Amino acid sequence: GHLDPFPKNFLWGAASAAYQIEGGWNAEGKGASIWDQFTKIPGKTFEGTNGDVAVDHYHRYKEDVALMAEMGLKAYRFSVAWSRILPEGAGEVNEAGLQFYENLIDELLAHHIEPVLTLYHWDIPQALQDKYNGWESRQAIDDFDQYARILFDRFKDKVKYWVSFNEQNVFTALGYRWQAHPPNVSDVKRMFEANHIINLANAKTIQSFRELVPNGQIGPSFGYGPMYSFDCSPDNVLAALNGEEFQNHWWLDVYVHGKYPKVTFKQLDRLGIAPTIEAGDNALLQAAKPDFLGVNYYHGGTVRANEIEFPIQENEQELEKDFQATDPYLMKPKDEQAQTPETSMFTSVSNPHLETTKWGWEIDPVGIRIALRRLQNRYDLPMMVTENGLGAYDELKADKTIDDDYRIQYLKDHVVELRKAITDGVELIGYCAWSFTDLLSWLNGYQKRYGFVYIDRDEKDEKELGRIPKKSYYWYKDVIETNGSDLK
Ligand code: GCO
After folding, report:
1. Can you give the pTM of this predicted structure?
2. N or C: which end of the chain has fewer CB within 10 A?
């Protein structure tokens, strides 16, 4: 049938994150972040790769923005490294760090590219981790707010779109449950406590934003995966509901409605792992509402009911011990019987209808339409897809070209579903593909490539880091030029 066009000012964009592209890890006064330290722990990342140099965007941002301009990009989403602005996490401001982002923003604006600025993409300053355990302390709320206010003050007239926290669900789970990200902890109770503190930091910062950037728009970027039931058995459907509540609504309800979902909270409370709510917390959460929802979409999850009984607290230790993730991003236990307390209410299984990438991520374009539909009706906010893309091995051919037809196919299939979602009635303001250039995959090194622009390198930064547009770069340029009108 007939499809609505993409809106006239649709933000066709691309995204990145500071640690994954910048390099210059200690340049011009920058302090260390938890990632600068964590990647040096043997065995934690693919072949010990780190972001010390990354793709050296810190020194080559002009070249990168020139490539964005040439492509016709309408928006560029990037994150600010907190420890560039405040090397100690709080206190003394590093002007050189602020100037770097100001230069980048000015360069974008000079080329009519809308900056979308992420405040936190996983890199809390190591100084704050050392001082008070980072997000496990309520002091982090004020320190984060101070950091955000510095950026609001400086860039309020230049940056309209702001993202508060990137994938809070992902970095708390990987950092505090799976021991796969810093701070390298495996303790669900601590995870839920830290997560609550981050919710408060998010709310407080949105309040500051209202005061300092009255004409801007702010929202979190949530890593959303719609949960599917394995089949129509009511037990499995109930498990999918549990999955949706524990992996999605648990965060989104707080962002948008300022309160934890009641049933979910009760279950965690029963298990002794619900966060500690202090006087004033609920009022703060309710006083801050985002202007839009950022949605990072890669894949959903398929679940069935677990055969093991709802665990009692005494089991917790034993269950934790057995637990090992295959790919921590999939949050799927190797031994499906080994569960942490609340995830035992559903068990992840592969979806027999879907193919996967080389890293086992399901490829599910229809899922992005399902995701946006569910989110529109439950939360009723405008949305921006702030990430979506394919990690793949790319081959640089002898003639220096990269034929990434598989990436074109992946992106095209997803963008067509966006158009259907818009036709359905979803209010979508933009789409930022992940990523603009190739970059460091946190745990998978430089061989897992996502970019429109190839970075000529090996795992050890021993090449020139030359930029080479891939075939998908020219494909996206055309999509932007025609505002997606050829996609159906
Ligand atoms: C990876 C991941 C990341 C994330 C992004 C989340 O391979 O490391 O895919 O690149 O997508 O950082 O916001």
Report:
1. 0.93
2. N
